[in-house]
């Protein structure tokens, strides 16, 4: 069984959003085109409480982009984004997620961030996604969404670590690029871990 994993295609990551990813809206059409080709579609949703430790606003004197220690891990500070129950946390309007799509929320614990859709950054807690895929005999994951250099990268790396054959859809992703080259480095990291990077045209053909 093959699953499509849509990572964090949420309003706050689109142009105009609180943590806007350049051209983030471009991934929506790719997701919509691929969904009908998959027997199983899952979507991850960044879903933070307002007091989340990844928000610069919760660290007096700090600004987004600075790095602090959170749960013993290096943590980049972000603008407030994807706050539970706010419009910014909703999936992008144009995303045609069917009622059969399964949603996994992440980043719920204020004390630790969760870039991956599978585990928090300390790998202490599972979101349930890995168990869900295993229960459905999924052996192959196709990953796309936002942002290439954070949540897409770590979701793909965790899929590989769980033994899934993993493909990242390059044109179905866009990155933050806090540092120039971060997107290319993310793709390299996925390839180095055994993943494949392809264009959506290859998957649709
Ligand atoms: C993300 C930064 C903070 C992402 C989520 O979806 O890539 N990036 N929270
Ligand atoms: Zn987040």
TrEMBL record:
<dbReference type="InterPro" id="IPR052347">
    <property type="entry name" value="Isochorismatase_Nicotinamidase"/>
</dbReference>
<dbReference type="GO" id="GO:0008936">
    <property type="term" value="F:nicotinamidase activity"/>
</dbReference>
<keyword id="KW-0378">Hydrolase</keyword>
<comment type="similarity">
    <text>Belongs to the isochorismatase family.</text>
</comment>
<feature type="domain" description="Isochorismatase-like">
    <location>
        <begin position="3"/>
        <end position="201"/>
    </location>
</feature>
<dbReference type="InterPro" id="IPR036380">
    <property type="entry name" value="Isochorismatase-like_sf"/>
</dbReference>
<protein>
    <recommendedName>
        <fullName>nicotinamidase</fullName>
        <ecNumber>3.5.1.19</ecNumber>
    </recommendedName>
</protein>
<keyword id="KW-0479">Metal-binding</keyword>
<comment type="pathway">
    <text>Cofactor biosynthesis; nicotinate biosynthesis; nicotinate from nicotinamide: step 1/1.</text>
</comment>
<dbReference type="InterPro" id="IPR000868">
    <property type="entry name" value="Isochorismatase-like_dom"/>
</dbReference>
<dbReference type="Pfam" id="PF00857">
    <property type="entry name" value="Isochorismatase"/>
</dbReference>
<keyword id="KW-0662">Pyridine nucleotide biosynthesis</keyword>
């Amino acid at each position: 069984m093959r699953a499509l994993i849509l990572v964090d295609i949420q309003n706050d990551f689109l142009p105009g959003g609180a943590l806007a990813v350049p051209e983030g809206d471009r991934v929506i059409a790719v997701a919509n085109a691929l969904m009908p080709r998959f027997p199983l579609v899952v979507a991850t949703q960044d879903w933070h409480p307002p007091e989340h430790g990844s928000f610069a606003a919760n660290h007096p004197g700090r600004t987004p982009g600075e790095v602090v220690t959170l749960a013993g891990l290096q943590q980049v500070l972000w603008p407030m984004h994807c706050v539970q129950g706010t419009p910014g946390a909703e999936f992008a309007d144009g995303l045609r997620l069917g009622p059969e799509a399964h949603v996994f929320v992440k980043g719920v614990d204020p004390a630790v961030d969760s870039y991956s859709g599978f585990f928090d950054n300390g790998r202490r807690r599972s979101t349930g996604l890995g168990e869900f895929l295993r229960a459905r005999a999924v052996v192959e994951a196709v990953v796309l969404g936002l942002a290439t250099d954070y949540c897409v990268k770590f979701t793909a790396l965790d899929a590989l670590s769980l033994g899934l054959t993993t493909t990242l859809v390059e044109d179905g992703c866009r990155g933050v690029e806090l540092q120039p080259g971060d997107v290319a480095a993310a793709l390299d990291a996925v390839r180095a871990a055994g993943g494949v990077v392809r264009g959506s045209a290859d998957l649709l053909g």
